[in-house]
Amino acid sequence: MDVKKFVALSDPNVFDTHVPASDGGWVQTDKGGNSFVKVLWTDSHTGEWAVLYRWKKGFVAPAHKHLGAIHVYIISGRLKLRDVELGAGDYIHEANGMVHDATEALEDTVHLNIADGPLLFFSETEILSYAGWEQMRRMALKARAAALPADSTR
Predict the structure, then answer these.
(1) What are the two backbone dihedrals, phi and then psi, of residue 44, each rounded to the nearest 5 degrees?
(2) 123: Cβ–Cβ under 8 A, 6 or more apart, which residues?
(3) How many other C-beta atoms can be found within 10 angstroms of the C-beta atom of residue 38?
(4) Residues near 95 by Cβ (< 8 Å), separated by ≥ 6?
(5) How would you label 113-136 residue by residue, b for 16+ Cβ within 10 Å and e otherwise?
(6) pLDDT in tens, 75-113
(7) DSSP string of the chain?
(8) pLDDT-flagged residues of the chain (< 50)
């Protein structure tokens, strides 16, 4: 096949997403300063999203239900997830519909999450929060706005 013809047929709406490996882009997600997220990618068409979480030792994410499957890869640190301890290099796939109790950071931990849909956080009596691609995109915009110089509106 003629490569030029093939390239000419490509969709102009298809593009790469690049997130620099800088320390910027992190958004605090709890009141105590123990949980942070760096949004890497969101897709409004599929509802998928990818983030890095950075949790300090002792942080506990509340019970939640997966309204889409999720892939989790531990970059550094350790998490307790149900009856499993995950350490650096470990991977876990959590299926759509999975419900589980709190997840605890046993050490300062950074983990990559690639989600096929939202999470629904709950307590014994109420829904606490919902996290999907829309919320992740808002956090990414918040991080981007915080990184802009004060005079960038000129």
Answers:
(1) -70, -20
(2) 62, 63
(3) 21
(4) 66, 69
(5) bbbbbbbbbeeeeeeeeebbbebb
(6) 999 999 989 999 999 999 999 999 988 899 999 999 999
(7) --HHHHHHTS-TT--------SS--EEE-STTS-EEEEEEEE-TTT--EEEEEEE-TT-EEPPEEESS-EEEEEEESEEEETTEEEETT-EEEE-TT-EE--EEESSSEEEEEEESS-EEEE-SSSEEEEE-HHHHHHHHHHHHHHHS-TTTT-
(8) 154
Residues 6 or more apart whose CB falls under 8 angstroms from that of 142 comprise 27
Q: How far is it, in rounded angstroms, from Cα 58 to Cα 55?
A: 8
* Whole-number Å distance between alpha carbons of 145 and 130: 23
Residue 25 has a CB neighbour count (10 Å cut-off) of 21
Domain ranges of the chain: 41-147
Tokens in use for 149? 């110089």
CA-based nearest residue to 35, from 13, 51, 14, 46 = 51
Cα torsion for 12, 13, 16, 20, to the nearest 10°?
120
| Cα–Cα distance for residue pair 27/36, rounded to 1 Å | 5
Looking at the domain covering 41-147, what would its CATH class be? mainly beta
